[in-house]
Structures are given as C-alpha cells and as structure tokens.
Amino acid sequence: MRCHFCGHLDTQVVDSRANPEATAIRRRRKCPNCDKRFTTYERVELRMPRLVKKDGSRTDFDRDKLLSSMRLALRKRPVATETVDAAADRIEEKLTGLGEREIPTSRVGDLVMRELARLDKIAYIRFASVYRSFESPDEFRELAQEVKTPRKRR
Predict the structure, then answer these.
(1) DSSP assignment of 70-116, as one string?
(2) Do 17 and 84 reside in the same domain of the chain?
(3) Phi, psi of 79, rounded to the nearest 5 degrees
C-alpha cells in the first residue's frame, strides 16, 4: 500500500479490526519512511444496482454522493463520522440484498431518510424537506409534528 503522505511504496500494518457488522476490515498503517499513520478499509466489492432517476435516466450508485448528502443533512449535528459510515454501510447492504439490477432513486432516498431518522431528528427533517420538495410551511410543520410524536409501529 502506497503511503498517502510521502508516496513510499511499502507501508506496515499496525492494527487490523473488523467493523461491528463484519462488512469491512479497518487497517491502521504506518509508513517506515515518514513515520506517518493512516487508515485504510477493505470492503467486499459487490455489484451495486443501477439507479433509475425520476426522468428515467440511469446512473451508477455512488457511495461518496450518498455520504455527502447525509453529511450535509448532519452538518453541525453531534453525530460521529463512524456512525454515518455505518449507516451508509447498512444502506449499501440493503441495496445489494435486494438482488435487483436497477432500483429507483426514490428507494435510496427512503433508506437514507430511515437511517437519518435513527441518527438525528433534525438531520432527518433537513433531508426530508429537500427530498420531498416541500412547497408550503404546512408540509414542513406536518413533518416536524410527525417527528415530535412518532407513529406507533404495527
């Protein structure tokens, strides 16, 4: 593994751990050349389904785009990066578990909303206000009320 800092071609693995869901291996590495440390992750590469947008166009699933939209909703909220990464892992796991070649982007949005609702209610409202394209303050108020008094699950 090439050192991210100095470009040295050989780095030493200092520590290896599986994440709690056992979907990735986290490796702490140290460069013998510059003595800097960094982290790498190994994940199984599964074929993600293609996403079908509202206009019918298709695009590849992009984990970075998923994470950036979640981080935007979680901006200035007290949620750890590892928690957000774990939520993204769960979303990816659900998408690959569907076994479908194509899925609508609305399905991904629903999964993101479900995860954000678990992580942080404010982030959930932020994301939902954009995702659902609210056109009136009443729609926003209804969502806030829904979060305030959650529906009972059957």
Answers:
(1) HHHHTTTSS--HHHHHHHHHHHHHHHHHT--SEEEHHHHHHHHHHHH
(2) no
(3) -125, 125
Same domain, 62 and 111: yes
Q: Which amino acid is at 1?
A: M
Q: pTM to 2 decimals?
A: 0.62
53-98 pLDDT, tens digit each: 999 999 999 999 999 999 999 999 999 999 999 999 999 989 988 8
> Is residue 141 within 8 Å of 89, Cβ to Cβ?
no
Segment 128-144, tens digit of pLDDT: 878 777 777 777 677 77
Sorted by sequence, the CB contacts under 8 Å of residue 130 that are 6+ apart come out as none
Parent domain of 20: 8-45
